[in-house]
Specification:
This protein has 70 residues and is mainly beta. The chain has no helices and four strands. Strands 1, 2, 3 and 4 form a four-stranded antiparallel β-sheet that branches. It is elongated.
Amino acid sequence: GWLDPERGALAVSLRILSATGGELAKLPLKTRRAGWQEVGFEFTSAATDRQASLELVATGTGSVLVDFVR
């Protein structure tokens, strides 16, 4: 995916949640500078859930733009 940390100090992470809301995976998405940058990620889940969902979570203050998550 692509992130653009516009301002502030945010920690961004990707979470995979099961259909019942349990966390299957959590990964930090680290940015190195201001401006658009590609942030790669890879994970292995201990469970299979065809109804799982992906969340992008930002904690702290500021703003970040997100594009092209697949």
